[in-house]
Write a structure and sequence with these properties.
This is 3'-5' exonuclease. This protein has 254 residues and is α/β, with parallel strands linked by helices. The protein is built from eleven helices and five strands. The chain is globular and about 60 Å long.
Length: 254
Amino acid sequence: MPMQPTNRVRVIDLETTGSSPPAHGVCEIGWQDVVLGKDGRWALGADHGASFVDPGRPIPPVTMAVHHILDEDVKSSPFWQEVAPPILRPEGGTAALAAHRASFEQRFCTPKLSGGAQWICTWKCALRIWPDSPSFSNQVLRYWRMPDGLEHQRGLPIHRAFPDAYVTAHHLRDQLNEAGLEQLLTWSAQPGLLPRVPYGNDRGRYWHELEDDLLRRYTSDRNEDVRFSAQQEIARREGATQTPYAGPAQGKLL
């Protein structure tokens, strides 16, 4: 029988010619399923893989230097509109798709291609669950956490679609087991709750270490994650658990 949709989250990782479609295209997609077992625990599933994609344009040297995918590797591959749907909408369905910094994958994995799937951002969830990590990149979390069962060589080389999806899936598994599916979806729909100031003179300081006046200056920062994080610390000091998120500001700074 087909797997019930609520029992599977599919991790997606893309390698591309750049960051801005339609000017840039996908040249590789990788995936790794995380499934809910009968014991109520999430674990890596059997379904995984990777596929080259013809991006419809030459791969620039600056991105080739990151993932080392050559034009000749992808020239006979199918195009994105053909490759994406069966991977993003597998038989049996999914509870959600997931990626580390999912906003990047979502630029290419449009609702039309994904069937309107919900997304989990493992980066945003890591900010919440592991706030003391020295950094929140996929690979720093990998070596800071050393997730159980992660086979070192299977997660290499980095910046290739399947190895990166495989590493992300270990973070997602542990996040699901700690916080649950609905909580991860809620966090993923909000800006990132940064545990520390990310730049400037206060870089590296926890929000609770900032004086009130200084903290309030960050509520007008250009970075949505910074604004949101400062607002949440203000709410905590005022006795609220969190302030409601009304969505991104349009044409103004908060």
